[in-house]
Amino acid sequence: MNAEIRAGDEREGASDVIRRALRLPEREVWLSHARGDAERLAAEDLAAEEDAW
After folding, report:
1. What whole-number distance in Å separates Cα of residue 20 and Cα of residue 45?
2. Which of 4, 12, 22, 50 qualifies as a cystine partner to 16, CB 3.0-4.6 A?
3. Would you give the distance in Å from CA 12 to the centre of its chain?
4. Partners of 10 in the beta sheet?
């Protein structure tokens, strides 16, 4: 990892880079679940359902 990576005008410290890298797998899992939900619900017709309010 390169702690010299720029974030805007400020340099990131090594701990910032590591923290961001550790969050990446969690985000990938979340995106995978979101894509699966979107595919599963793509054919859902909300206009056919009654309004809840």
Report:
1. 38
2. 12
3. 21
4. 7
Q: Is the pTM of the predicted complex or chain greater than 0.85? A: no
How far is it, in rounded angstroms, from Cα 5 to Cα 21? 13
Residues 10-42: pLDDT tens digits?
A: 788 999 999 999 999 999 999 999 999 999 999
Instruction: Kindly report the backbone phi and psi dihedral angles of residue 6, in degrees, each rounded to the nearest multiple of 5, phi listed first.
Output: -90, 140
| Residue ranges covered by each domain of the chain | 9-39
> What are the residue ranges of helices labelled H in 1-53?
14-41
Residue 7's beta-bridge partner residues? 10
Can you tell me the distance from the alpha carbon of 23 to that of 19, in angstroms, rounded to the nearest whole number? 6
Q: Which two tokens stand for residue 46?
A: 């909300």
Phi (first) and psi of residue 38, to 5 degrees:
-65, -40
